[in-house]
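Appendix B, example 12.
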Amino acid sequence: MFRSCLFTPADRPERFAKALATGADLVVLDLEDAVQPDAKDAAREQIRAFLRNGGRAGVRVNGVSTPWHEKDLSLLQEPGLCALMLPKAEEAADLARLAAVLPAGCALVALVESALGVWNARDLAAVPGVTQIAFGSVDFQLDAGIPDSEDDYDALLHARARLVLASAVAGIAAPMDGVTVALDDAAILRRDVARARGLGFGGKLCIHPRQIGPVHEGFAASEAEIAQARAIVAAADAAGANGAIRLHGKLIDRPVAERARRLVETITP
């Protein structure tokens, strides 16, 4: 599961290595929105050269309905490709076609950015080979006709919840939430991360390197959460039963104990 995904324009090769140095879980070299039509061919070759010379990154290709999509797929066999992100993901058949030609070990991220994509989220998540869904919240807001506001989280709550539920039903990694466009307000970023984590997201798309640290911190369990989880697991193991137990004045039933056990397992080498 990717906690953080940092987009880097594919026509700015001088930024590629710097992006990798940020510590982002996934760096995506963006051939879609970040590159003008007349620069896409040159940008694709810059990615190819980077991947052939020791670079390792993901690529956001152009959408299936564009004239550049098939050319972008020529990058699939490059040795440093670790993930492919499909923008405007709407149809399961498109993802299945990509999954069938991906090299082993290459993640497939479905970027859901439209009303149709959100509506079809369960089908998209269920495609064998899809590893994670990401929410293109800004484009979705435009497509769904939702007015822009300083705080649009509640307005997009249904869409976000649908992606979380679709991922859980399909048994794939928790999805990545959309970008925070407020680049100079750390409080807004922390708020957005906390909301996303509370809703069930596992990570977040980033558009600036300084967003990586707060995203990682926000999606990590706190020391208090870890201590509580360990206490719950210890109490459940000591009880040796499948029923509910009492701990510090609270009822701990099987789902709570299992959730605590999963958390402990993620931090135990």
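The mean pLDDT is 90. The longest strand covers residues 4-9.
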